[in-house]
């Protein structure tokens, strides 16, 4: 479903990403890990055509993301708060997205009902602007927005960061449920090895822009990653 070929990103002389080939299957929950500066965000940004690659291509369902637009209607993403509209309240923001996606009010309610536990009565109906939300609540709004409109592919950059422990557990359950019910392909970058190994059936480890492990064996993932990160 997603195909990366001969992908390179260079800033001046520094090659920050070098991925000759990577395929991600439909419905896969793909975890991306690596130390600070390994290239995780750069990879996601190129895959979403937010940054141009120096060389190579990314295709989603055969469409080159840098040359076509159709894939955008089937793709959701939350990378950071720049993707939100800070001058709106969460309710206004979701209403705006509802119109963009052409959903009915009932569809939106159905969607937001899935987030009741995660929102913990701190997000909707509060008349608080997005810019004034806590970092954790910002993230919750971004994730709920990324999952709107029945996307086939969802990119989440560090979804567990800034969430309290209860919210982390609720988010994990929510992702697993979505994965089960709608067969969404999730691409999740995370520094939290426990969460990412729990929800993802495949983990790719980046080091200095290169894929150095591609782990698919659930029982061995954690031990391999722990061995790598403890050095
Ligand atoms: N606009 C830019 N100009 C120069 N270098 C950049 C630019 N954007 C990213 N980089 C470099 O690319 C490398 C990869 O950064 P990236 O943010 O993708 O890493 P990451 O794995 O997401 O890190 P983190 O875990 O800290 O979020 C880093 O060395 C970073 O300094």
Automatic annotation (TrEMBL):
Q: Which CDD domains does this chain map to? A: ABC_DR_subfamily_A
Can the keyword Nucleotide-binding be found in this entry's annotation? yes
| Domain of life per record | Bacteria
Kindly state which keywords UniProt assigns to this record, in alphabetical order.
Answer: ATP-binding, Nucleotide-binding, Transport
* Gene Ontology MF annotations: ATP binding
Q: What PROSITE patterns does the annotation carry?
A: ABC_TRANSPORTER_1 (PS00211), ABC_TRANSPORTER_2 (PS50893)
Q: Name one Pfam family in it.
A: ABC_tran
Tell me which residues make up the ABC transporter domain: 2-230
Q: Does the keyword Cell membrane apply?
A: no
- Read off the InterPro entries from this record: AAA+_ATPase, ABC_transporter-like_ATP-bd, ABC_transporter-like_CS, ABC_Transporter_VariousFunc, P-loop_NTPase
In Swiss-Prot or TrEMBL terms, this protein is called ABC transporter ATP-binding protein
